[in-house]
């Protein structure tokens, strides 16, 4: 393709509304434009990248034995009533009425549709297992779309669903998807961390997230540099490590703390370290209220709490409820004399003489000890921190970093097959529920994650496997007859070889053309300049910045070899 | 792929709710299922066909110089306010509100989005022409979804939009798309008629529809077997052919026709032929009312009427308005003494002593002649009929048949660029409006049209270019060691050659497997049966029904050659 004809509206200035590099670069390189908040359109270069990622995903899905189907975006309310999610899904789900007032949603995900189809069409163990997938547009009305395509409202996902006759079958399907994901991200040039993720109330089941380490990621990962353990923050277990202090238990004492509520305020007001406080958080858990205690410098892990309590809804109690329960304004809750159940993080077990709220507005209690109140249950209820040992090898402290979730695999079990009565007949003629797994990859987010991981001050550095084009040929001066004709010859010869190649035939300064080539991240730049008179041209690798001078005569062969070598590192 | 693993829920029975062959066969062959009225999901075989059609479209679009982009399905109301179509589009457009009560539509088409993007990104004549396209889901809330994917509510379209500096440029872009469409449908194995279509109020512009002749088509085409002229019914011109009758003008006469309103009723009541009546139709045309006269056995062509009157809205007047205007109940309108403008079809010019309504309930007038009332304008205002001569060569009467519209190309001119102020700067620095064209192909409907054209009593006959697989290998008896191992050898060898091949390894009767192979329309069936002991296998061409016996040793080579030969006929 000639750059003079290509629809590639690059921008010199950084768009002011883009906060992270991938967002800035996708706009600057003319890959996409915003049509509305969280809604983007993809221009030729951007769409080529998305399609390349899609094709890698498709090839690896097919290779794993998954079969591609295509569900609809519009799904009737009745389908979602069957799973119970019409009521559960919040405002994130776009809902719409047709001309006859029938209700539909725009699929934010497709468990319902797949289970419905399989329930209707598959009846015998002989037709199982099946892994079905699609590459489809998803719609989610995010409360706060941001970071470009990282969190947007209309995007492309590959979602797969496996149906097996038993847990052992699910293990096999799950492993197939796990392995396919490893291959997919390798081929996309992404360095991913595979982390254990929470599976909610389902005991024994597993779930993994494929995370791209990045400071702009919305999730936090805890991992161990020694043993390779990795889990997301929701899931990562905190060891119950007893510690003793020689300290003697002191006399409990009420202190006046006027309008001093937060740990920070208390630390500065009382001059006591945060870790000598115990925070008391009041939660509404389904239809009751509970209090949760964690050390002052720790955070309650609501996922762990939810799993412990086996509830589906959990939220911090409102101010009114807190006042009713504690008899004090918010900020002064404490466990002493509290009438609701108290759960405490393991760490609290080993504390002495700590500070808690007095359940009395403007007062706290000092020197509180465990015998001053009753704890219904101690458990791991806090987020892991860099102070914690690796829960797996215990040999060193964990590292915590942020990551972008690009893939997620999940053992669903019978959650949906039960709701849809999705059964098969086994060899003995008995009807049994199918066992499901689900597996997602965000296509657009994968593209953005690649940019986050692969860019420099000049622009994007696309891995050759997903680059919109593999080579860009740049005649330095298009008005120079020889430069121009040599450039076109090489361009055409490369096309003949099946290389995806651009030629920047624009009558622009070389600097402008080089800048654009770097910005849009084409893996190889072939410069045809003055040295063409000596039969020499230059090839630059965008990633390694390596420049080689090659002879004009065997330029095509040399370039094809460079491409092959570059591709080899992404092979699986 | 092994058929034993393939998700291919074929049905023996014809689904009762499917009225046309393509719909029946797409269900029976397990290509798709309905999720809701007019909303379908595509299973593996069906989705493969759609993707093959998409890829043919993509290749030919790219070859013509068009560039692929991807717009969003959700588009904000403001975008559609700019074109004025938010108000104009009826209930066919799905409208939706987000969590902040902002309004969006689900794109029924994308002129607005493309014009908006081009307006923002292209400013100079140097960046024109551009043809941009996408392959995207469209949403249209059809009043009456039917015939499977022929008229459904969520479907895939290729839509392209060209932007040129002038009409000459548009002619070139239009021709490129026209030629690409010819190639696309040829490659899909479709026999299409290219017909002139109406362009509305835009003088001089052109529009063509690509129609697949079929009795289940929703559009009617008039064409000439002599000269090849073809136009859709809305557009096809009726010649103004004078004819004389020796008849003398008789005296006008009122006749009592109690409760006799329709032409059929009048014919039987008065014993006079339909062609001796003149129908008077009252229309509301924008903000006024007009009467239109056509011969009793003709139909008013509302498109022609709309173009003549240069109005945007045209509809039959309601009963109340008719009564007020004519002074009579509906069914008794006539031109004599009518106070609104009367337009008449050319044919009416040559009629004598005809019957019209009397503008008096239960009365008609006989022996009416042109001097009994005033006609503001005679024009071509009726639908063409098999009585009419070809308007182009005049050498014989036209043939009328139904067709399925699979493609439509249209010179839009400045309709959208004006609304969006989509201008470019020309060589002299002047700002000028871009000239647009738009070009659509219905992907799902193309698949259905292929089936309508290519099927027999056994099932679908896919052209090899769009078939889900090219070859199906059928071991007659999978329990026969030799048959099974030879079949698998051939299957694997064909895969090695890049052939898309199925093997029906199911332990089913041969009859069941043959029936399924025919039903799903695989172009070549390779039967490995008893003759394998003699080193022979059989290859059957689904389309020609030709069967050849080939030697096992060079089976792969022979099959690959048959495939090549079969493909050759779809080459462009």
UniProtKB/TrEMBL annotation, chains A, B:
<dbReference type="GO" id="GO:0004827">
    <property type="term" value="F:proline-tRNA ligase activity"/>
</dbReference>
<dbReference type="Pfam" id="PF00587">
    <property type="entry name" value="tRNA-synt_2b"/>
</dbReference>
<keyword id="KW-0963">Cytoplasm</keyword>
<dbReference type="InterPro" id="IPR004500">
    <property type="entry name" value="Pro-tRNA-synth_IIa_bac-type"/>
</dbReference>
<dbReference type="InterPro" id="IPR007214">
    <property type="entry name" value="YbaK/aa-tRNA-synth-assoc-dom"/>
</dbReference>
<comment type="subunit">
    <text>Homodimer.</text>
</comment>
<feature type="domain" description="Aminoacyl-transfer RNA synthetases class-II family profile">
    <location>
        <begin position="33"/>
        <end position="463"/>
    </location>
</feature>
<dbReference type="InterPro" id="IPR033730">
    <property type="entry name" value="ProRS_core_prok"/>
</dbReference>
<dbReference type="InterPro" id="IPR050062">
    <property type="entry name" value="Pro-tRNA_synthetase"/>
</dbReference>
<keyword id="KW-0547">Nucleotide-binding</keyword>
<dbReference type="InterPro" id="IPR045864">
    <property type="entry name" value="aa-tRNA-synth_II/BPL/LPL"/>
</dbReference>
<dbReference type="InterPro" id="IPR044140">
    <property type="entry name" value="ProRS_anticodon_short"/>
</dbReference>
<dbReference type="InterPro" id="IPR023717">
    <property type="entry name" value="Pro-tRNA-Synthase_IIa_type1"/>
</dbReference>
<keyword id="KW-0067">ATP-binding</keyword>
<keyword id="KW-0648">Protein biosynthesis</keyword>
<comment type="function">
    <text>Catalyzes the attachment of proline to tRNA(Pro) in a two-step reaction: proline is first activated by ATP to form Pro-AMP and then transferred to the acceptor end of tRNA(Pro). As ProRS can inadvertently accommodate and process non-cognate amino acids such as alanine and cysteine, to avoid such errors it has two additional distinct editing activities against alanine. One activity is designated as 'pretransfer' editing and involves the tRNA(Pro)-independent hydrolysis of activated Ala-AMP.</text>
</comment>
<dbReference type="InterPro" id="IPR036621">
    <property type="entry name" value="Anticodon-bd_dom_sf"/>
</dbReference>
<keyword id="KW-0030">Aminoacyl-tRNA synthetase</keyword>
<dbReference type="InterPro" id="IPR002314">
    <property type="entry name" value="aa-tRNA-synt_IIb"/>
</dbReference>
<dbReference type="InterPro" id="IPR036754">
    <property type="entry name" value="YbaK/aa-tRNA-synt-asso_dom_sf"/>
</dbReference>
<comment type="similarity">
    <text>Belongs to the class-II aminoacyl-tRNA synthetase family. ProS type 1 subfamily.</text>
</comment>
<keyword id="KW-0436">Ligase</keyword>
<dbReference type="InterPro" id="IPR004154">
    <property type="entry name" value="Anticodon-bd"/>
</dbReference>
<dbReference type="Pfam" id="PF04073">
    <property type="entry name" value="tRNA_edit"/>
</dbReference>
<dbReference type="InterPro" id="IPR006195">
    <property type="entry name" value="aa-tRNA-synth_II"/>
</dbReference>
<protein>
    <recommendedName>
        <fullName>Proline--tRNA ligase</fullName>
        <ecNumber>6.1.1.15</ecNumber>
    </recommendedName>
</protein>
<dbReference type="Pfam" id="PF03129">
    <property type="entry name" value="HGTP_anticodon"/>
</dbReference>
<dbReference type="InterPro" id="IPR002316">
    <property type="entry name" value="Pro-tRNA-ligase_IIa"/>
</dbReference>
